[in-house]
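quick one if you have a minute, typing this from the bus. below you get a single protein, a line of residues and a line of whole numbers that encode the local backbone shape. could you go over both lines and see whether the tokens make sense for that sequence. anything you notice is useful, everything is just below.
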Amino acid sequence: MSSTELTDSDEGKTVVSSDGGSIGVVSEVRGGRAYVDPDPNVTDKLMSTMGWSDADEEDFALNASQVDEVTDDEVRLTSDL
């Protein structure tokens, strides 16, 4: 599967899991990576799966390879996360 390009126009979009659950909001896109401000209800298990282990971080990096689709309103993650 090819990765999806992340751009500045994705800032402010909701990040959702493959089943539509809210993960957070894209706060910034820099160097082809989206930085996500996670929802407070995101579980530790999901954070670990995403590689987001440092609880002191405010925003977490999301690689284009983790993204299945970008729509007008949201960034949908791949089903293997």
